[in-house]
Design goal:
single chain, 207 residues, alpha+beta, Glutaredoxin, Glutathione S-transferase Yfyf (Class Pi), Chain A, domain 2, 2 domains, 4-stranded mixed beta sheet, 51% helix
Length: 207
């Protein structure tokens, strides 16, 4: 199996965490690719050229949830991804993933030059993320002992990691203390810490 990725992609990070949990890390080859470049090797496999992309023989998967479910199946351990039919869990997963999507849009906009940033998009992203943080600050339970890693919690922790890395909301810890405590419980897990976004993996976002 090969996973095409970039180190700071939150969606690829989810897959890397899941591979560790599933016990298939040794069977997974990682290839760091350069996006928005004509020599991106992903383009020959998937026209959009997006990561993450998992290739396993004739199987090619381009969505993080599908990749994580596939890795779950390959590992044969307790799955991270909820099964269809468990609609409450699926609903929670969808909300967490939508939160990550909103944070990702925000992070991409702030990486653009200030002269081309959209004030409207920045304002909408700030409002969306604050609404969700206010909601989960009331509903999240700070885990005691080993925190459970599921597709939902991995989506949340990667979103918070992006927020922190790009300094999108400097006051989030003080404003949402329950979320901060929840995040602290997860950030010390070795696979979570080792896959966190890093400055030396940043690439210019010019368009």
């Amino acid at each position: 199996m090969k996973l095409y990725y970039t180190p700071n992609s939150p969606y690829a990070r989810m897959c890397r965490i899941t591979a560790e949990l599933a016990g298939v890390n040794n069977d997974l080859e990682l290839e760091w690719v350069t996006l928005r470049s004509p020599d991106n090797p992903v383009i020959a496999l998937s026209p959009l050229g997006r990561v993450p992309l998992l290739v396993d023989g004739d199987v090619m998967l381009t969505e993080a949830r599908h990749i994580c479910a596939y890795l779950d199946e390959k590992g044969g351990k307790s799955p991270t991804v909820a099964v269809y039919g468990d609609w409450q869990a699926l609903s929670s997963e969808a909300e967490a993933l939508a939160f990550l999507d909103a944070v990702t849009v925000w992070s991409r906009e702030v990486r653009r030059g200030q002269d081309v940033q959209s004030d409207f998009l920045l304002e909408v992203a700030d409002e969306q993320v604050r609404r969700e943080l206010a909601h989960i600050d009331k509903t999240l339970s700070v885990p005691a002992g080993d925190p459970p890693l599921t597709f939902e919690t991995i989506s949340l922790l990667t979103a918070l990691g992006m927020m922190r890395f790009y300094e999108l909301m400097p006051d989030w810890r003080e404003t949402y203390p329950n979320v901060a405590a929840w995040s602290d419980a997860y950030d010390v897990i070795p696979i979570v810490a080792s896959t966190a976004p890093r400055a030396d993996a940043l690439r210019p976002l010019v368009r």
